[in-house]
Amino acid sequence: MTYIDTLVALADPTRRAMFEALRERPRTVGELAGRVRVRQPTASQHLRVLRHAALVTHSRQGTRRYYQASREGLDALRRYVESLWGDVLSAYAASDPAPVARRKGKPRKARARKPVPRRRPASRS
Fold it and tell me: Which domains, from first to last, does the chain contain?
């Protein structure tokens, strides 16, 4: 499981809607299928992709499987995005030809604005 699996899984709007529903509370395949308006076999296929990306886990209770959101897949994606920040900020700083020099001395005071008189609407008599 990598961040790519997570991106691929969440790229599909149906899977994304299912994952968001599972963030609220655990649900069965039937509940999810009804919520996103797909048949149960289709919902099961989407859940298989979400499980492979470690975005959901399931537990059995009698004859039903309850699916719930898992942080593991999102943690992989988060680590990837955080690893980009250092490179992005360095590239941004390097692309700036002349950094803005700060003025020395007293900071400028904001000027007070004069109030603008409001016009009253003409009365219609």
Answer: 3-73 (1.10.10.10)
Condensed to tens digits (0 to 9), the pLDDT of residues 27-82 reads 999 999 999 999 999 999 999 999 999 999 999 999 999 999 999 989 988 988 88
122: number of Cβ within 10 Å: 6
What type of residue is 23?
R
pLDDT tens for each residue of 89-109: 777 778 877 665 555 666 666
Kindly state the tokens that stand for 90. Answer: 């360095």
Spell out where the chain has E strands. 27-28, 56-61, 64-69
